Amino acid sequence: MSRVSFSLTRVRLIARNTLLEASRQKLFSFLLLLALGLVGGAQWFREFNFGASELKFLADLGYGAMAFFGAALTIAATAQLFFSEIDNRTALTLLAKPVWRAEFVLGKYLGVVAVTAVFCALITGLLVAMLWSRESALMREFPDSFGQGHTLRIVDLAWAGYLQWLKLTVLAAFTLLVATFSRTQLYTVVTGFFVVVICHLQYLAQDVYAQGGSTFGQVVAGVLGLMFPNFQLFNFADNVGAGVPVAWDRVARVSVYALGYVAGGCGLSVFSFRQREI
Amino acid sequence: MSTVSPDGPAIDLRGLVKDFAVGLRGVKLRAVDDLCLRVPAGQVFGLLGPNGSGKSTTIKIILGLLEATAGECRVFGVPSTQVEARVDVGYLPESPYFYRHLSGRELVRFYARICGLGGATLSARVAEVINWVGLTAAADRLVGTYSKGMLQRIGLAQALVHDPRLVILDEPTAGVDPVGSAAISELILQLKARGKTVLITSHLLTQIEDICDRVAILDRGRLILEGAVRDLVGGAERQALIVEKLSAQELEELRTWLGSRGRTLEAVEQPRARLDQIFLDRVGRSESTNREGGA
Ligand SMILES: Nc1ncnc2c1ncn2[C@@H]1O[C@H](COP(=O)(O)OP(=O)(O)OP(=O)(O)O)[C@@H](O)[C@H]1O
Ligand SMILES: [Mg+2]
Predict the structure, then answer these.
(1) Is the CB of residue B72 less than 8 Å from the CB of residue B113?
(2) Is A200 contained in some domain?
(3) Residue of B17, B29, B199, B217 to test ligand 1 pocket, by largest number of atoms within 8 Å of CB
(4) Is A189 among the domain residues?
(5) Of A62, B47, B56, B135, which is least packed with CB atoms within 10 Å of its CB?
(6) Residue A106: inside a domain, yes or no?
């Protein structure tokens, strides 16, 4: 009997099917609402006319909305796309084929990651267009404050979008891990939101760790700090809105950091899914 | 890895036990109890039993979807826990649901590619199995809009698309109309003629009797009977004759004639056309014209 080796083709097929499912379920239609909301919100703030600080405000608003709705989308999509396989018993049919469980888990993961990539790319594109056109308008209105031309740099705006996406890939890996051992979709979604909160507040634990205090507290803080990634590291919107250039080495370091957590999350997901009875 | 002898059994179960944890305090339910079974290659094997007797559980263990609590399960000599055991297996789950967002054709194509099919022959093969199960007219509709019987048919198509040596069908006729059910029987016999092994569960015992070479009956997870259908139902020593209506006198003459040869007339019955036969005659005819027109 020939050995069946791990196949990237099967992973790709499963991922593509997952993305197709998301798009045919009209998972992206809420993007339109979000886009309308952003453009509308920007229009509304224009009334106050902040000048150059308006741009920072807009960038904060835009990337903040992207982070919030992106997290919601990631958790919902991961839970939904995973449990639709389990609940509709399509996983049963798929895993009865010569398919490794690891291929299934990675395929699902990459499908969700593709969904979040589409989301981040579209919203980033929209933000770039909005910020750029607003800055151009401001430049015409107050030529004195913009002596050196545009202060915003499109590359940096794109980097900020990329980092938001990177954060979502980590979140997707953690949510998938929860999904592989939980019985219900609701449990997965609720736990996923807890993960987001913990990862955003994780730096507080690290502060405790740094300050010292009781040994026990330090150990707990240290473990928490290792287990959960610090989502604050992914937030570059403040700098970008103020026109501070993004340092590429920082981007590289954060990418490696994210990749580590993604690998850990996916590895544990595969391990946990292999024990699962379908 | 063990080598596979060409005439070894397709499925070999030894002392198979499966416990499920049910209830809160770790209460165990034994769904399969010390099951030993060999499914010979090239035969149609029926797995029978009342609801909850462990048929589907056994099948899931054979497919590596569940892990046995104890015992051994091999498919063509390969332990079912290995991915390799599923290379030559097609499976139709009970009450199947498939990706609702795909069309029937896309669905079969997806599974075909998962099984490693590709290239120029892929589309032709997909069209062929879809035609086989009689879904050509509906192939480009979304699976989410299919009726129960159509889901069974598309499920059958995905189970057969990679031309497996072993086909496992868990209640393939549930929810399928009599015409479709007869077509599935026909299909299974074709598979057997091409040397495939078929494991089938069904509650339609007449159908099982017509198509199976061997059957096993489970009850509460235990094997209570196993053997060749021919041996089990017997009947080789008896015959039924159907004639036009005889008068009482003719009947009496027949009895005497038989008596003089040392035979007895055991029963005189009124044969009636069976409803399924009438259904098949009427619907089958209009269906075949419909399908040709629709396809
Ligand atoms: N995942 C599970 N967890 C707990 N118990 C289970 C599980 N799956 C099956 N069972 C139990 O195992 C027993 C056998 O179930 P199984 O589905 O194998 O029956 P079956 O013979 O296929 O019945 P049917 O004819 O109704 O399809 C049943 O009592 C069922 O309740
Ligand atoms: Mg069953």
Answers:
(1) no
(2) yes
(3) B29
(4) yes
(5) B56
(6) yes
Q: Which domain holds residue A62?
A: 8-274
Strands B78-79, B70-75: pairing kind: antiparallel
First to last CA, chain A: 26
Residue B288 pLDDT exceeds 60: no
pLDDT, tens only, B175-230: 888 888 888 899 999 999 999 999 999 998 888 888 999 999 999 999 998 999 88
The residue assigned the tokens 């029926």 is: B46
| Type of residue numbered A8 | L
Q: Show the tokens assigned to B226.
A: 């196993």
Both tokens of residue B122?
Answer: 């892929």
Burial of residue B145 (CB within 10 Å: 0-12, 13-18, 19+) is: exposed
Q: Is residue A2 part of a domain?
A: no
The reply to whether ipTM tops 0.90 is no
Written as one letter, the residue type at B6 is P
Cross-strand pairs, B217: B48, B225
Is the pTM above the cut of 0.95?
A: no
Domain count, chain A: 1
How do B214-219 and B44-48 pair as beta strands? parallel
Coil vs helix vs strand at B189: helix
**Ligand 1 site, residue B256, Cβ cutoff 6 A:** no
Asked if residues B26 and B215 have their Cβ atoms less than 8 Å apart, the reply is: no
Q: Do A21 and B101 touch (CB under 8 A)?
A: yes
SS3 content of chain B, % helix, strand, coil (to 5): 40, 25, 40
Q: Which of B244, B220, B196, B192 is nearest to B58 (CA)?
A: B220
